[in-house]
Amino acid sequence: MPEGATALEIPTDRPAFYECFKSFGVPAAATAFRLVTPPTETRASRPERITIYMPPPPPEMVYFAKRFAYAYIAPLELPQSFELLPPGHGADATVRFRTPDDREAAMRRQPFELDGATVKLVHEGETSNCSRARNDYVAHVALHDYPVEQRTQKEIGANCGRFGFVREIDPACFAAPDLATVRVVLQLEDPREIPRHVRIRYHGGSTSVIPVEVVRLWDHAHSSDAHGQYVPLFQAPTAAA
Q1: Rounded CA separation 126/132 (Å)
Q2: Whole-number Å distance between alpha carbons of 230 and 226
Q3: How far apart are CA 234 and CA 85, in angstroms?
Q4: pLDDT digits (tens, 9 = 90+) for 48-69
Q5: What is the rounded distance in angstroms from the CA atom of residue 219 to the CA atom of residue 136?
């Protein structure tokens, strides 16, 4: 835990497990096994809301995203001469502009009135079906019995993506033997989202079960320096002399 940080109470009402489903091309871990989900653990309905923590996109994807806006139209019927892309992100339509500057110019001129219809544009992340996570907490989490086949930065981030954004992975874990503990630092909105187990489901039907231990929990402000930059918790392994 960072110096000067106060340890917060670790929630006890955490979910029993989350499942991470791997695609066809991802090989199953050698230690994976067949796990039958009992009826008591089968969802009767889809959850109303889920949180997905994503890594920062590369600059070219940021540029691409800034070319789009999402339109709310009242009433929805428009003249045939007005062309829009199909609906997306809860909006009535998606509008693609040539450049991000073109989009911002249109934003400044709205709302638009077209033959009795009103068109309102909003940015990505501002649509009615999307909300931004506050990510006020930082947690030191231990992923026990972690298979070596899943021990890459990409896979660890994906396996934790339902309950936190991976800020840091202990470098020592990458050289550790199979089923060794992987230690990560997560930034997240709600510590109660951290499950007690992660079940990695492979395409062939086998599963790796990862017990999840919350080691410490603190306010995210203690993990940033005076410039707002993240301060690592783990030390890089020293090179052998």
Answers
A1: 9
A2: 10
A3: 46
A4: 667 778 777 888 888 888 887 7
A5: 6
